[in-house]
């Protein structure tokens, strides 16, 4: 005889107990081995924008106020490497770094055991999605107050086709109803535990994501979908590495400015900045701006102090002067550069040597000699490139080549110096009104050019940021009114006192 569960007409309907999670845990799934990238290390340890991919990912959840705890599930044999990253970065929310399972589903089970039995929110996120936004994390957590399972997805821009075993189309679903899944996927702990408990009894159980497990084994459970983002890519194939790196560059171009002068003064008071090429253009304006905000600035150039950036003895003397005066060096900036136009085959040896020495040997020399000082303060080296680094252009081949070299130098040094806490970045301004540019191209409509002051402000924002390994594009906003460009004279020798500017 079956039990009668019906109630009388006066019985009150059952109301679910309100959800009261003890905490919100982010589980970072880092079990990939990098096979498709052809790497000898797990792809999550590959460095992009100066840091391992997993460090970028962890930083997002570490700084998200909605997240209370982070657990990392790492590929077998690499737990120690991730623990070192966590310790060095000072990620306080990371409570465990443990080995995952052989499959995604086994890894989720390990994670559930690590989380414990308390009711909590759990967000599962791919370690190789380093560009997840705080907005996505926040909306996932907020949705769990109403739903017990949440997915992240974006509309499909491509038509999706279904094929048979012979690779012939069998169906073309309506694109408007399709989404491309991303992570994180978020759950109330009881829901995902129950789904996996039921799945354990299915000998044919297999799923590629956790929402799929809920959908199959708890079919009556609504799964809320929130909007992901095109930037939240998964680094899986070689091309993804390049895409992610460029997306980090674009994000770096939006370095936030502090809200008022007091913020800059708090950041810069007591700091020492050394600017090579600080007599004209961007270098001059950056030095003046930093001084106004309380920094102690030492500007060196060929014309004002007789300092040649390509000469180690000159660079060492300049750094020694700044250090002996203040006892520290926090920022070293190299804006020195020369731009000589002409066909390479027709350029004389002296001119070629000057371009190579000032534009490339100079920054290399400064970098080598500045490292011991910057290591003491965990400071930053800032270099400058130009839009011509992306494609060599006729009549200034050496200039373009040296600017491309500085981009590679920036990325390489950011990697090399990460272990000692020294950051390296490179500013890429569009066409800028500097004496060097005027000498090379003559007078140009001022509304088509960035002002040196605008580039200096962007540079200052980079210097007080935590960025490293970035190429930061500085552009004039669309529709911006013409900027006042103060007239400046250029040294007659066209030497290293001029600042680099994009030459096209």
UniProtKB/TrEMBL annotation:
Extent of Low complexity compositional bias: 494-504
Keyword Transferase: yes
Keyword Nucleotidyltransferase: yes
GO terms of biological process kind: isopentenyl diphosphate biosynthetic process, methylerythritol 4-phosphate pathway
UniProt site positions, description: Transition state stabilizer: 36, 43
EC code: 2.7.7.60
Pathway: Isoprenoid biosynthesis; isopentenyl diphosphate biosynthesis via DXP pathway; isopentenyl diphosphate from 1-deoxy-D-xylulose 5-phosphate: step 2/6
Gene3D superfamilies, A to Z: NAD(P)-binding Rossmann-like Domain (3.40.50.720), Spore Coat Polysaccharide Biosynthesis Protein SpsA, Chain A (3.90.550.10)
Catalytically driven reaction(s): 2-C-methyl-D-erythritol 4-phosphate + CTP + H(+) = 4-CDP-2-C-methyl-D-erythritol + diphosphate
Region described as Disordered: spans on this chain: 1-20, 475-504
Top EC category: transferase
A molecular function GO annotation: 2-C-methyl-D-erythritol 4-phosphate cytidylyltransferase activity
Keywords on record: Isoprene biosynthesis, Nucleotidyltransferase, Transferase
InterPro entries from the UniProt entry: CDP-ribitol_syn, IspD, IspD/TarI, IspD/TarI_cytidylyltransf_bact, NAD(P)-bd_dom_sf, Nucleotide-diphossugar_trans, Sc_DH/Rdtase_CS, SDR_fam
Positions of the record's site feature: Positions MEP for the nucleophilic attack: 175, 234
Family recorded in the similarity comment: Belongs to the short-chain dehydrogenases/reductases (SDR) family.
Role of this protein: Catalyzes the formation of 4-diphosphocytidyl-2-C-methyl-D-erythritol from CTP and 2-C-methyl-D-erythritol 4-phosphate (MEP).
HAMAP family, A to Z: IspD
Protein name (record): 2-C-methyl-D-erythritol 4-phosphate cytidylyltransferase
Originating organism: Micromonospora avicenniae
Lineage: Bacteria, Bacillati, Actinomycetota, Actinomycetes, Micromonosporales
Gene from which the chain derives: ispD
């Amino acid at each position: 005889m079956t039990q009668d569960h019906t109630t009388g007409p006066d019985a009150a309907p059952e109301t679910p107990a309100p959800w009261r999670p003890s905490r919100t845990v982010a589980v970072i799934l880092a079990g990939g081995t990098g096979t498709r990238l052809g790497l000898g290390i797990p792809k999550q340890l590959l460095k992009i924008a100066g840091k391992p991919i997993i460090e970028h990912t962890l930083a997002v959840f570490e700084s998200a106020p909605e997240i209370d705890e982070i657990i990392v599930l790492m590929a077998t044999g690499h737990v120690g490497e991730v623990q070192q990253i966590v310790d060095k970065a000072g990620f306080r929310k990371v409570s465990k770094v443990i080995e995952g399972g052989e499959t995604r589903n086994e890894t989720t089970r390990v994670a559930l055991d690590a989380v414990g039995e308390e009711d909590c929110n759990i967000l599962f996120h791919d370690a190789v999605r380093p560009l997840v936004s705080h907005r996505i994390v926040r909306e996932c957590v907020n949705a769990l107050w109403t739903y017990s399972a949440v997915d992240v997805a974006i509309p499909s821009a491509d038509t999706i086709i279904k094929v048979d075993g012979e690779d012939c189309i069998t169906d073309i679903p309506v694109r408007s109803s399709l989404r491309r899944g991303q992570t994180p996927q978020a759950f109330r702990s009881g829901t995902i535990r129950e789904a996996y408990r039921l799945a354990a009894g299915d000998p044919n159980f297999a799923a590629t994501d956790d929402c799929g497990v809920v959908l199959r084994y708890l079919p009556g459970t609504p799964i809320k979908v929130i909007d992901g983002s095109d930037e939240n890519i998964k680094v899986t194939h070689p091309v993804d590495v390049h895409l992610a790196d460029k997306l980090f560059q674009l994000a770096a171009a939006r370095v936030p400015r502090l809200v008022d002068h007091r913020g800059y003064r708090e950041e810069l008071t007591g700091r020492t900045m050394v600017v090579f090429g600080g007599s004209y253009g961007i270098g001059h304006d950056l030095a003046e701006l930093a001084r106004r905000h309380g920094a102690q600035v030492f500007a060196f150039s060929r014309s004002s102090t007789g300092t040649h950036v390509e000469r180690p003895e000159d660079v060492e003397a300049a750094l020694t002067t700044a250090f002996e005066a203040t006892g520290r060096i926090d920022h070293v900036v190299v804006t020195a550069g020369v731009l000589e136009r002409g066909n390479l085959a027709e350029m004389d040896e002296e001119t070629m040597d000057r371009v190579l020495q000032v534009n490339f040997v100079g920054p290399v020399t400064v970098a080598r000699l500045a490292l011991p000082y910057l290591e003491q303060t965990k400071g930053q080296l800032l270099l400058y490139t130009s839009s011509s680094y992306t494609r060599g252009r006729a009549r200034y081949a050496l200039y373009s080549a040296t600017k491309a070299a500085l981009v590679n130098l920036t990325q390489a040094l950011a990697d090399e110096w990460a272990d000692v806490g020294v950051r390296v970045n490179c500013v890429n301004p569009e066409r800028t009104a500097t004496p060097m540019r005027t000498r090379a191209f003559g007078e140009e409509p001022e509304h088509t050019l960035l002002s040196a002051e605008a580039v200096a402000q962007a540079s200052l924002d980079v210097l007080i940021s935590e960025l490293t390994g970035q190429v930061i594009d500085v552009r004039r906003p669309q529709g911006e009114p013409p900027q006042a460009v103060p007239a400046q004279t250029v040294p007659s020798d066209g030497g290293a006192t001029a600042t680099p500017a994009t030459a096209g």
